[in-house]
Design goal:
There is one protein chain. It is built from eight helices and no strands. It is an all-alpha fold. The protein has one domain (3-175). The chain is globular, with a radius of gyration of 18 Å. 25% of the residues are buried.
Length: 185
């Protein structure tokens, strides 16, 4: 799938959440976020005939925590969702490392090929980054207004994640397994 389409499918629901919160408040925005997430996953499935693991897990949590938010009319649930999801991802990566099963490699080996050391280091980095994101989410939602928290999800967390991902490129390039050129020489 085109990278721009993938980015739009991943950020689209967040943009809907941000705009919905700005115009109508957190409760309607949460409902719109849930619908936009399901639509995004549906489009992704229609285009690729599969659902990527991380967006699928995050989407499931958006629906569950969003439903709790709406049923109990308490925004705490939707604010906790990023913390829970990030800790779940970190826990899965740490557990995989402890069991000598590199889950990041399993999920991303079709995107790029790294040697075992590269996968190990990359997994440690992402696991700690997920813990960092959980801590940042906790600090922001507990100390700032709901409007600030919603804005921070789009304009803080998303750019932080992109910058972190870009900062991993030197590691990926250093540990990338080179494909034979097929020239026979």
């Amino acid at each position: 799938m085109n990278q721009w389409i993938r980015l739009a499918l991943e950020t689209g629901p967040l943009v809907v959440f941000f705009v919905g919160n700005t115009k109508f408040g957190i409760m309607p925005a949460t409902g719109a976020f849930m619908v936009a997430t399901v639509v995004s996953l549906g489009i992704n499935y229609a285009m690729e005939r599969r659902l990527p693991v991380m967006p699928l897990v995050a989407g499931a949590f958006i629906v569950v925590f969003g439903a709790l938010t709406l049923v109990f009319e308490d925004s705490t649930f939707i604010k906790l969702k990023p913390t829970v999801v990030n800790l779940l991802f970190a826990g899965a990566l740490f557990t995989g490392l402890a069991l000598r099963r590199n889950l990041l490699k399993i999920v991303f080996q079709t995107a790029f090929q790294l040697d075992d050391e590269g996968w190990r280091v990359l997994t440690w980095r992402w696991a700690f980054f997920f813990v960092f994101l959980a801590l940042v989410n906790e600090a922001v939602w507990r100390t700032q207004s709901t409007d600030f928290w919603v804005s921070f999800k789009l304009f803080g967390i998303m750019p932080l994640t992109m910058v972190f991902g870009i900062c991993q490129v030197p590691l990926i390039l250093r540990h990338q397994i080179k494909e034979p050129d097929g020239s026979g020489t």
